[in-house]
Structure formats: structure tokens, C-alpha cells
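User: Show me an example of a complex going from sequences to C-alpha cells.

Assistant: Sure. Here are the input components:
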Amino acid sequence: MLPTRGYAVHSPTDNLAPFDFERRELSPTDVLITIDFCGVCHSDIHQVRGEWGNSIYPMVPGHEIVGRVTAVGAEVTKFKIGDHAGVGVAVDSCRECNNCRADYEQHCEKGSVGTYNSTEMDRVTPTYGGYSSQIVVQEHFALRITETENLAAVAPLLCAGITTYSPLKRFGIKAGQKVGVVGLGGLGHLGVKFAVSMGAQVTVFSTSPAKKDDATRLGAQHFVVSKNADEMTPLASTFDFILDTVSAPHDINVYLNLLRLNGAMVQVGIPEKPMEVAAFSLVVNNRSLAGSGAGGIAETQEMLDYCAEKGIVSDIEIIPMSRIAEAYDRTVKGDVRYRFVIDMSTL
Amino acid sequence: MLPTRGYAVHSPTDNLAPFDFERRELSPTDVLITIDFCGVCHSDIHQVRGEWGNSIYPMVPGHEIVGRVTAVGAEVTKFKIGDHAGVGVAVDSCRECNNCRADYEQHCEKGSVGTYNSTEMDRVTPTYGGYSSQIVVQEHFALRITETENLAAVAPLLCAGITTYSPLKRFGIKAGQKVGVVGLGGLGHLGVKFAVSMGAQVTVFSTSPAKKDDATRLGAQHFVVSKNADEMTPLASTFDFILDTVSAPHDINVYLNLLRLNGAMVQVGIPEKPMEVAAFSLVVNNRSLAGSGAGGIAETQEMLDYCAEKGIVSDIEIIPMSRIAEAYDRTVKGDVRYRFVIDMSTL
């Protein structure tokens, strides 16, 4: 077994603190990744604090992992020692069901294995995430990383990146389409970068007028203060697609009403309480409201390659491990532009 | 002007009673249809009783109209006197906007003209529906009817038919797919007939075990009492598509959870209160919840031609105009298999 240092909580009210545990010895198809950086996802906070009701303790959070391959199993073909590699939200699945074979491992019919706060396919062994020195993972679930100059800024692509890229691709966003992005945070700022890179005309909706300059800098053509009815009303039935990244309580009908014929809105923020959807918000213009859960391994690799080609990375603020509590507080307040990334050399 | 006899209400608490009014003289592109039958749609009741908050009185309801062409304008090419013709939920639109040009007149960007409880494009002249002796309509908005042997049973196709056909076509339902139909009423029983005709494996979900025999007779392979968790649980993530026809309050998450990867549910019942949608119901399997509003003229014609070819009509109970109050009461109670149709010769 491989002695590993991490940061963990032992209860919903605990603070993250050093935690020593063991990673498994490498199987023939495993790789060992020494972790350089790990992004801080809002879902880390929800799960650390037990807010989704599914928390397993002790918990080592983190599923936006980048690092270097430092050992490989005998049958590994995708990586060699010294390669850069990443790990996202899943580390295993059955690999046999319809969804797995269709490259949607995250929707494995038997239940995929989350990178943390989950159990391996044996449904017993807990998984520990990227707030740690190293991780052992099936090579299938490790991603190749070719953009290594700004490695820390690549980390958030493993969750926030694929979560916003996947629905834009699924709904075939293309040049000239009118796309709205609701909320300019960790997810939203990457949603804007992707939609702009696909040639869409992008409008950012935010409750915070202070974010207008950032929206413009990220490439958005329009910025709307969503609480301002005078700005919203003329936009009714004009959008092809809207990506809603807000998890705080908000009226989604306001945004559904902006969709034109056969338009779709995808909700990637996960509000705690059910969303209230008026039937007529969907009936008018044959609108759709869809969900989206991260992306499969093939699509995540496609996204990373796309980002390397287009020069897309996350806007980040690098922190040492010791400042994680402060980073959590500021993330909850939306006071980060736009993702904290932990420098794991500070562990 | 053309003196016309109808049945109308003058307030939300009024009972339908004889009402004399005038139809316009025919323009060069109008046809005059002498009405043989008019279906009783649940939305007639909602609007007569002012339950949608949009009612204009006096109101002559009815938008499932079939009859014979008894006069044509000088430029009419689609009909000649003696042809059978139908009118559905819309009688005009701008004909110029993107949606109209894409054959989605019902979603006209300037607002289509409802067959009743609406105003003409002048936004002043009220429209009166099919509980009447005759109607004058632009030939573009009149439908050709080739199935004339059972004309009364064709009437409900003009609203209930197109409302269920359109989403099944839009989502490309094909042989072997697993389709659920929630609720076995006016909409649901036609949804079952269409899905079965497309080769789908159809499951009917109903709160009423008494409807099992009918579901089987209509061609459904499976029948599930939706309140029975033991029957519902094993069906999680197994359906390609679900058509929800229920407008009474119900938990739609129960049905969303039955959708497999990239599955969609279309809500064609119009619940009065907003539907509560849990984010995870959509995130798991990348599910969609969509709305659908009737269909355009071209698609309605396609549906009527499809029904004539496949021998699909509505199950109906014919009533004289004098029994309309009783028909409303029984429709509200779900006590009709599956659509009341008024014999307009009894007017």
C-alpha cells in the first residue's frame, strides 16, 4: 500500500486538516499520479458540509486533479512515467452497461465511482479525492494533458470545464447562435469562454453589475443585470440556448421565457430545493429544460484537447493548502475570480 | 355578414346557452365551413370558467371542428364546395415571422389567433369557436379531411390528436423504443394509439386500475398503477420517452426518474400550479423536460393524413348540444372514454 498525505474532514462541522491514509498498490491497468494542483469546486463544500445528505466521512475532497504520472502498471498503454495527467469527477464504472459503452461512464447504469465521497465498484472501499499528495487510478479514467505551461489553470477544466462544455456540444452550439449564460462564477466564466470559442453571440446574466467588465473581457457581447425587468423584457423569445450555472434559489421561468422556438436551457447549477417550472414557460415555443452531469471520459479528453488548441484555461487564484478554510468561505460568497486552485506542493 | 347560431357563456359562472352572432363575409382566401361536429376539450372548460385568467366574454368555445365547405372565396385553391374540412386551435397568424415561415404558426412571434377566446390579427375582433353552426376561416388554417366515414371521431384529432402526435414526431419515436404515457384520458388515449402505431413499446401509467383493460385494447403492452412504488421502482432509467398528459397536480420527478440516458419527457397536460423539478431528476442521465403546444398547420395536416392511413380516430361519445353541461361535469371527473363530441345538427 502507498502511504499518502491528504486533507480531510471527519464530520459535517469539522475543518479540513491533515489526514494520512493509503492508496492501493497499482494493478496492471493503474497509473499513479503525483498531484500538483487540485481545484476547489463548490460541490466540495456541499459534500464536506453534508449539505447533499450523501456524505461519507472521513472525506478527502477534490475532483479537479492535475499532476504527473510517477508509476504505471504493467499493461498501461496511455501513459508513461513523466506524462502529465488529470482526474475528474469519476474514477471507475462498470465499463459494460449501455451507458458506459456509449462513453457516458458518469451515467453508468450500475453507478459510477466518484473520485471522492464514494466507494469503489466493490461498494465498500471508500474513495479519497485530490486534496492529497497522490492518487492511483485506472488509466481509462485518467486524462492526457498537453497544456502544461499553466497547469494550475487546467485543473478546473476537469469538472467546471467539462460540465459547461458538454451541454454546449450536446445542443450543437454554433457560430451566430444567441447563447445566454446565467451566473458568472466558476462554471459560468468557463461557459462564456466555450460559447464564445464556438462563435456564439453570448449574453451574461448576473445579479452583480460589477461583473460587466469581466464578462466583456471573457468575450461576451452583452451583459444584462437580471433583476432589471427593463433589460429582460425585450429579450423574450430571442435565445437559442441558455446555460444556467446558478445554484442559489432563483426563478428559472424568467430565463425559460427568453428561449425562442425549440430553444433549450440546461441547468448545471444544482439548487438544493426543487425548481418551480410553469407549464406555459415550456409550452410556448416548444421549450426544453435539461440537466447535464459532467461528461464521459472520451468527451472530457476531447474538451481538454479543444482547450489546448484554443488556449482556454480557467481564471484562477492559487492558494496553499493552509488557506482552504478561507477559500471555502470566499467561494460560498462568490468572492473568487473564478476558481481557487490548491498548490499541492504546500501540503 | 353571416348570421350564425352558437352556444356561449357571458361570465365565468354562466352556463352555456344559445347565442346569435355574425361571421364575417368571405374574403377571397376564406372558406365557409358548416360545422358537423365539435369536440369538447378540457381547455374549453378551463377557459369558459376563467381558470387560466385569460378569458374574453362572451365566449363561444370549441377548437376541434369538422364539417363541410359550403362556400369559398374567389382565390381559394385548397378546397371546393362539398369538401370536408377541419379547424384546430388557431385560425390566423402573421404568416411572416421566422416561426410562421418554419410552419410553427401556433408559435407566431406576433401571437397567433386562437380559434376562440382570442382576437383576430387586428387585436380587436373577437374570435368565436366551434360550438356553432358555421365558421369562416382563412383557407391556410383549414385542414383537409379525407377520413369521412367516422367524421365525429376525427374532430378530437384537431387538438388532442396533434398535441400528442407532434411531440412523438419531434422526439423521433421509432420502433422498439420504450415509451410511457402518463394518464389515460382524451390526450393520453390518442398518445397511446400514436406511439403504438410508430412501433414503440408502450406503458400506460394511471392512478386508476380500472383503465388497464382499455390500455391493453388501445395497444399498450404494459400498464402500471403509478401510485404503486413496487411497480415503479424497477422501471427507473428504462424509458426513452414519456408523454405526460396529466394536468392535475402530480409529482413529475417520479416520471423523470424513469428516463434513460438522454431521455425526454414532454408535458402536454397543463397543471395550474408550477411543477416542482428536482435538479438531480434532470442531471442523472442528462434528462430533458420539454413543453409542446399543439402543432403547426403543415404538421396537423400530416397528422390527419397519417391517421387516415393508419385508421386512427378518437374514442368518442357523441352528445347533443343540450347535454353540454353534463359533458363538462363528466370531463372534469375523467368520466368519459375518451372524448365528448357535440353533434352540431342538434344546435
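The lines above are the inputs; the final block is the predicted structure for all two components together. Chain B touches chain A through 36 residues (CB under 8 Å).
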